[in-house]
Amino acid sequence: MVHHKPIVIGVAGGSGSGKTSVSQAILSHFPNHSIMMLEHDSYYKDQSDLPFEERLKTNYDHPFAFDTDLLIDHLNKLLRYESVSKPVYDYVAHTRSCDIEIQEPKEVIILEGILILADKRLRDLMDIKVFVDTDDDIRIIRRIKRDIEERGRTLDSVIDQYLRIVKPMYHQFIEPTKRYADVVVPEGGKNHVAIDLINTKISTILGNFP
Ligand SMILES: Nc1ncnc2c1ncn2[C@@H]1O[C@H](COP(=O)(O)OP(=O)(O)O)[C@@H](O)[C@H]1O
Ligand SMILES: O=c1ccn([C@@H]2O[C@H](COP(=O)(O)O)[C@@H](O)[C@H]2O)c(=O)[nH]1
Predict the structure, then answer these.
(1) What is the pLDDT along the chain (210 residues), one digit of tens a residue?
(2) Structural domains counted in the chain
(3) pTM recorded for the entire structure
(4) DSSP assignment letter at 173
(5) Residues at the annotated binding site?
(6) Is 146 a member of any domain?
(7) Using a 6 Å CB cutoff, which residues line ligand 1?
(8) Which residues contact residue 47 at a Cβ distance below 8 angstroms, ignoring those fewer than 6 apart?
(9) What value does the CA radius of gyration of the chain take, rounded to a whole number of Å?
(10) Is 16 in the pocket of ligand 2 (CB under 6 A)?
(11) Which domain holds residue 33?
């Protein structure tokens, strides 16, 4: 029988910083535990009422792009050990897909996203706050590769979006949230020492569960 509220680990950082890699490294360290990922990206606002050309103009790196109220509602349900219907985001179509995913509650929740530390309501629900800190040049190189291979973009579109939006928004909204982090992880998923420290802390909290 479960007595304690689930543990929430927030993993923030710029696009391409290695948030997903760090989160995966935590997930794979606890194969026998009940652990899940919750991505702020799944809660990008639905834009199906806008034509595709209009969706291309959206600023996806601004807090207004997300339905954070819905994320908080879902997180609170998961914290009460209730399941939720997660939206599924389609990066190629730039809108919510028709699918939903049923997410069962778990003992450990990894909450991941570029702007999760920018919202005090989310910060207040986290037990451990992590910021993955990777230089701009490394992040743009990773993003070019990923967005062309996985998100249906061209080189020119990635460069244009990066210079016009992603970079200025990072410095205005994302980088300043580093000050809220308990742990700053340089260089993402390959930082084994930082990941071990985070995993040890999670084990300690799990060990203290009644
Ligand atoms: N330490 C690393 N060294 C090399 N490549 C990495 C490293 N961490 C992540 N990557 C690669 O960079 C890309 C972005 O990493 P990801 O973890 O998805 O970042 P984010 O979730 O912050 O956008 C992925 O293609 C991933 O394979
Ligand atoms: O329709 C969309 C939605 C998001 N983006 C970009 O995605 C990144 C955040 O994802 P990461 O996995 O953290 O890189 C954000 O910087 C948005 O610019 C998009 O291009 N289109």
Answers:
(1) 455 899 999 999 999 999 999 999 999 999 888 999 999 999 999 999 999 999 999 999 999 999 999 999 999 999 999 999 999 999 999 999 999 999 999 999 999 999 999 999 999 999 999 999 999 999 999 999 999 999 999 999 999 999 999 999 999 999 999 999 999 999 877 899 999 999 999 999 888 765
(2) 1
(3) 0.96
(4) I
(5) 13-20
(6) yes
(7) 13, 15-21, 142, 146, 187-190
(8) 54, 55, 58, 94, 95, 96
(9) 17
(10) yes
(11) 7-204
**Cβ-contact 104, 80 below 8 angstroms:** no
60 part of a folded domain: yes
Q: Residue 70 Cα, ligand 1 centroid: separation in angstroms?
A: 27
Q: How far is the CA of 12 from the centre of ligand 1 (A)?
A: 13
Is residue 185 within 8 A of residue 21, CB to CB? The reply is: no
Structure tokens that stand for 205 in this block? 């909290």
Strands (DSSP E) contained in the chain are 7-13, 35-39, 84-90, 95-103, 108-112, 128-133, 183-186
Domain assignment of residue 210, yes or no: no
Q: Which two tokens stand for residue 50?
A: 């806008």
Give the C-alpha separation, 152 to 81, whole Å.
Answer: 36
> Which are the contacts of 200, defined by CB distance < 8 A and separation ≥ 6?
none
Q: How far apart are the CA of 59 and the centre of ligand 2, in A? A: 9
Residue with CA nearest ligand 2 atom 14: 15
